[in-house]
Design brief:
With about 80 residues, the protein is mostly helical. It has 5 helices and no strands.
Length: about 80
Amino acid sequence: MDPRVVEQKLETLRYCVNRVNQRCSATAEELARDPDTQDIIALNLSRAVHNYERINWDITHAVCSRHRDDFRAFARVVSDRT
């Protein structure tokens, strides 16, 4: 794959993880009550990971509050291989 394409995708991943980090709620319950934050997080996770049909806010909160470094580690591995 063209290294420029990979770098562009990695930059998108970095941006999405940063947006999730900025908007992550303190609890899953708080996230479930905040449709604006839900939209921002769901959009950015779908860009970085999957496209969900039904969202479990407990899982989403766990991803955005405890697993952001997984995305960063993935980006580093991909970047190191290009």
